[in-house]
User: What shape does this take?
Amino acid sequence: MDNLFYAVILGIVEGLTEFLPVSSTGHLIIVSDFLNLVGEKESVFEVFIQLGAILAVVVMYWPRFWGLLRPNPQQRFSGLYGIWLLILTCIPACVLGLLCHDYIKQYLFSPATVVIALVVGALMMIVVERRPYEARSVDLDDMTPKLAFGIGCFQCMALWPGFSRSASTIMGGMILGASRRLAAEYSFVAAVPIMVAATGYDMLKSYALFTAADIPFMAVGFAMSFVSALLAIKAFIALVGRMSLVPFAVYRLLLAPLVWYFMVW
Assistant: This one.
């Protein structure tokens, strides 16, 4: 881990794809495999740079996160109620992730499993967009415990690398009656606690793998992830109200056979 150019590439890939419904983990596995950055340390680095993307969400939605600490009487999604909603969303994936962590790491982190997840996720996105759809909740203040927990259950699909946490939560929100924009925004906000927990867990288990010599590589990856995630979030929010998830599904379906041909077959 001494080529800073590789850190730049991986950081950009993470930031651009983390909050789009295309699977950041899937893309990182693919790019890392192509760059021959494989191994336990490299896998933990891919998890670590997610913190840069998380920081981008906190910066973008700082008033909402601050409102969780200092309740705003004009906003329902604030204070203890907002924190409770986020906890409800995190519980299903946290429980399942802890139970299946070793299995997921051993059997699902490969180009072949990513290809399958890309296709399955794409087909589900198309089905969700083609079904009759009526948004009953359009703003973060419309979030309810039932909706928050339901989205959390759908988020469990993201434990399969290549499926996409963003895709699973956005689809889940839409199926449960949230507008596409609300589903996307709540997907960003809800990503912070679940990703901090997952990243912290991996780093605690693996911190001994790293030395002071790895700090520049990790810092560059973190910084590039942060900057590219900021740009991706702004662009996606601007587009999500005007377009469906179908173009992202098409992208996934086009990417899958290329990955299969070059990395699996």
In short: The two ends are 28 Å apart (CA to CA). The mean pLDDT is 89.
